[in-house]
Design brief:
The complex is a heterodimer of chains A (441) and B (407). Chain A has a domain of 202 residues: Dihydrodipicolinate Reductase, domain 2 (2-Layer Sandwich), CATH 3.30.360. Chain A is built from 13 helices and 18 strands. In chain A, the strands form three sheets. In chain A, strands 16-15-14-13-7-12-11-9-17-18 form a ten-stranded mixed β-sheet. Chain B has a single domain, classed as Methylamine Dehydrogenase, Chain H (7 Propeller), CATH 2.130.10.10. Chain B is built from two helices and 36 strands. Classes of the chains: A alpha/beta (441), B mainly beta (407). At the A-B interface, helix 4 of A face loops of B.
Chain lengths: 441, 407
């Protein structure tokens, strides 16, 4: 609906409503959610497109520290919806001026906590990308804020709602795979070899690099970091385990009745990429290219494995989760849907194809966004709510702490403490760069 | 000239020439990206179109290295760029036999950021002086002998002039104009003396876009990541601008000038627009999001544009668009690829390696036939020259496809 039409309904609302047999239907349709986006990159634009496509939202504010994606997104919002969203560099100013009732946070991980908490405190509902945070303490503070403000939070774990994930989960939970003792989660990378450093460069015009780094360490600008590359810079994210791991580890917590593991151990390194470089002149990424993390639960073991090199010719699947049960192996995949390989060779393989709402990027953001709006309107808990997403985020973040310290961690999931290891426990939080302050107590 | 059955035009811009000889089959060289008229349309006639009865055959194959550089064909030679084992390589072949005549190489980074990497610019041949100009992926400029590839002059312009390097390197091809070689370096282009390589004019600040400088009148059109500029060829002075911000700073498809207007198009959901030529910020006639050229510009035949809409990663389609209104006339589900034109026909290469021929009509997609000539990913435009169509894929497999009509 364009601005003129909405204006018309505002002024002529009473007459219009009186003529309709069910005036409240019209009234409800007219009351669109006021949506603002923080982080106008690839994924933020994907979410905002779904918000517009839902016809239940109006984009009132866009925020980014880089002019280029900000104006590109504004341009797209204007041509697709006729709305002229207000543009901001500073999210605090946007929350004050644009008064959104929904805020989308689609920034790199190091910039999740502060804007999410500020949005919740301003009274907005929140859609925040996965993993919920960069360090454990931030996610805990976000959870506290959401509970204190009683707001609906949806986290971008679209695999919680994807049709083949739902049917696959039903298949497993119905006992078709038998008793499951091991789950193996994995991403096998493309054929990437040694990594060469790229030269540091001038900050692009229109980018506030200081603000981009924000509470995280301020490194020299390097084109490897943005767009997109920050996932493999540990100052700003947690590598493949943080990025991909959270999706698949979340599937484990969705399936099991256990809420957390008892212990975590991870090992790995940059065995193929080579040592990380970070000088005044040049930089490489610094996340491990090889990593294994073992999660000990009471009734099963979960194993994460990634390697960002080597082909997959020796295995049927390149990505996903294997649930190993007494009746066979169940593979939950991405573009390859799910497949059950029965132990009994006489039985036939069961397969289901994926159904994505966005076939290009292979996701179900549309359903996730609709579920979020329904949850707000019906005052219920959404599919990928902050509580479950927080627990799922703990798994990769604990894996990274174990990898950094090089030892096994005992996890008290009730109190969310690492037991008997003060040095590891320190890594649940980090020092923020001034003037930003680490959230929570 | 290699093919004695055809008359061959070697001087670009001699438009009246083909009018005089329109009745006879006309072959033509293709010395620069998008051809002698910078529009992706070949004036060649009399080539074989009965592909349905007899599919055209591959006459030679070559390995040219990773990348997206198109072929140029001039003076009996076919040239393109690729990345082979830590080097950027210009390969020069005999146009007829595919025999490799020489290679020019220098150390280079593959630059495989979210894609396979390799060079994306196309060399430019100066037939009259027997030279070839090359813009390397990271801003190296070479002037080479067409005869043997020996270096006439070289400058690492990006380093010397401390230019911002775009995320995927420099991908525009050199434009030869008068005494100058004009390059899409810097936010609004750069010109070097074509004999010495000395800088004549330059622009500073943001990184360049990925398009090739397109000339009209006394202007060249260059791109940055945030828009387009019409600059005076001799001085680099900005005559006009188009604000055209794209998400990743990719303005790669060459603009098209016609009828007092300029058409621009970009991918990543951006769309296209038509602007009236003027001074200052150009007024917009229309803009839409239904035609998005990620890398390859469409071709304009009459009052219609034909080209690929959508990104290489998306469900891209071949579309026909009305110039005046931007309205889509028809859509064909081809997937990603690139389109060239000759003799009112579309010659298109799908990403999966199928080379197709269709009559150009704004009423409907009028396919003639397709033939598989390569494997994926073919993102580079096919080039018709002297009765052969030169195609390549991103991994560096190249083929010459014979469409000559034998007397």
């Amino acid at each position: 609906m364009n601005a003129n039409r909405r204006e018309f309904f505002k002024t002529a609302g009473l007459t219009g409503a009186a003529l309709l047999p069910f005036p409240w239907v019209q009234a409800q349709a007219e009351r669109k959610h006021r949506v603002a986006l923080i982080g106008c990159g690839w994924w933020g634009a994907n979410i905002v497109r779904e918000a517009m496509a839902s016809n239940r939202c109006r984009i009132v504010g866009l925020c980014d520290v880089y002019r280029r994606p900000l104006t590109a997104t504004a341009d797209e919002v204007e041509t697709l919806s006729g709305e002229q969203a207000e543009l901001f560099e500073d999210y605090e100013a946007m929350l004050r001026k644009a008064r959104p009732d929904i805020v989308i946070v689609a920034t790199p991980d190091h910039w999740h906590a502060l804007p999410s908490i500020a949005a919740l405190k301003s009274g907005a509902h929140l859609f925040v990308e996965k993993p919920t945070s960069h360090t454990i303490g931030e996610s805990q503070a976000m959870l506290q804020a959401a509970e204190a403000e009683d707001r609906v939070v949806q986290v971008g774990l679209h695999r919680r709602i994807g049709p083949h994930h739902r049917s696959g989960m039903e298949f497993i939970k119905a006992g078709r795979v038998g008793d499951i003792g091991t789950v193996r989660l994995f991403v096998v990378g493309r054929n990437r070899g040694g990594e060469r450093p790229a030269a540091n460069a001038d900050v692009p015009n229109g980018m506030n690099w200081d603000l981009w780094c924000g509470p995280a360490p301020k490194r020299p600008f390097n084109p490897k970091i943005t767009p997109g590359g920050w996932r493999n810079f540990l100052d700003y994210a947690n590598g493949t385990l943080g990025d991909w791991g959270v999706h698949w580890l979340d599937q484990v917590l969705w399936w099991t009745e256990e809420k957390y593991p008892r212990s975590v151990y991870s090992t790995g390194g940059r065995f193929v990429s080579g040592a990380a470089v970070n000088t005044e002149q040049a930089a490489t990424t610094d996340a491990p290219d090889t990593q294994t993390a073992v999660y000990r639960f009471d009734s099963f073991t979960a194993i994460w494995e990634h390697r960002n090199y080597s082909g997959n010719g020796s295995e049927k699947h390149r990505i996903g989760a294997y649930f190993y049960g007494s009746k066979g192996v169940f593979h939950m995949g991405w573009r390859d849907g799910w497949t059950f390989y029965p132990s009994d060779n006489q039985e036939s393989i069961v397969h289901e194809k994926p159904q994505f709402s966005d076939t290009v990027d292979g996701n179900n953001l549309k359903q996730l966004w609709a579920d979020f709006l329904d949850a707000i309107e019906q005052k219920r808990t959404p599919a990928a709510n902050l509580e479950v997403a927080h627990r799922s985020t703990m798994l990769p973040l604990l894996g990274m702490i174990s990898w950094r310290t090089g030892r096994s961690l005992t996890w008290d999931g009730e109190r969310e403490r690492i037991v008997g290891d003060p040095e590891a426990e320190k890594l649940m939080r980090r020092e923020y760069r001034k003037p930003w302050r680490y959230p929570g107590v | 000239m290699a093919n004695r059955f055809f008359m061959t035009r070697t001087l670009p811009g001699a438009l009246s020439f083909w009018v005089l000889t329109a009745a006879t089959p006309l072959a033509e060289d293709w010395p620069n990206f998008r051809g002698p008229d910078y529009d992706g349309i070949s004036d060649e006639t009399g080539w074989r179109k009965n592909w349905a009865e007899k599919p055209p055959a591959v006459v030679w194959k070559a390995e040219v290295g990773i990348g997206f550089s198109a072929f140029v064909v001039a003076d009996g030679r076919a040239l393109t760029l690729g990345h082979i084992q830590d080097q950027e390589v210009l390969s020069c072949f005999d146009e007829t036999t595919g025999e490799r005549l020489w290679r020019h190489r220098f150390p280079s980074e593959l630059g495989a950021k979210f894609y396979i990497g390799g060079p994306g610019s196309t060399p430019t041949v100066d037939v009259a002086n027997g030279l070839v100009y090359q813009l390397g992926k990271w801003g190296e400029v070479y002037c080479l002998s067409l005869e043997d590839g020996s270096v006439k002059w070289f400058r690492n312009v990006a380093q010397e002039e401390k230019l911002s390097v775009p995320s995927w390197g420099f991908n525009g091809s050199p434009l030869l104009s008068g005494e100058l070689v004009v390059l899409n370096l810097g936010p609004a282009g750069m010109a070097l003396n074509r004999q010495t390589g000395e800088t004549v004019w330059s622009s500073r600040g943001d990184a360049a876009g990925y398009s090739t400088p397109v000339p009209y009148e006394d202007i060249v059109i260059v791109s940055s990541g945030d828009g387009w500029s019409g600059v005076e060829t001799l001085t680099g002075a900005t005559r006009w601008t188009i604000d055209w911000a794209t998400r990743y700073g990719v303005n790669a498809a060459d603009p098209i000038v016609w009828d007092g207007k300029v058409f621009v198009s970009s991918g990543y959901q951006k769309g296209s627009g038509l602007f009236s030529l003027n001074r200052g910020e150009l007024p917009r006639t229309w803009a839409q999001r239904l035609f998005r050229s990620q890398q390859n510009a469409p071709v304009r035949l009459g009052a219609y544009l034909y080209g690929i809409d959508g990104d290489s990663s998306s469900r891209a389609k071949l579309k026909c668009l009305e110039w005046e209104t931007g309205e889509v006339q028809w859509t064909e589900d081809t997937g990603y690829g690139a389109v060239a034109a000759a003799d009112n026909h579309l010659i298109y290469l799908r990403a999966d390696g199928r080379l197709g021929l269709a009559e150009a009509s704004p009423k409907a997609f009028e396919p003639i036939a397709e033939t598989k000539v390569l494997t994926r990913d073919c993102w580079t435009v096919p080039v018709l020259a002297n009765g052969r169509i030169f195609c390549r894929n991103s991994r560096g497999q190249a083929v010459a496809v014979d469409v000559r009509t034998l007397p």
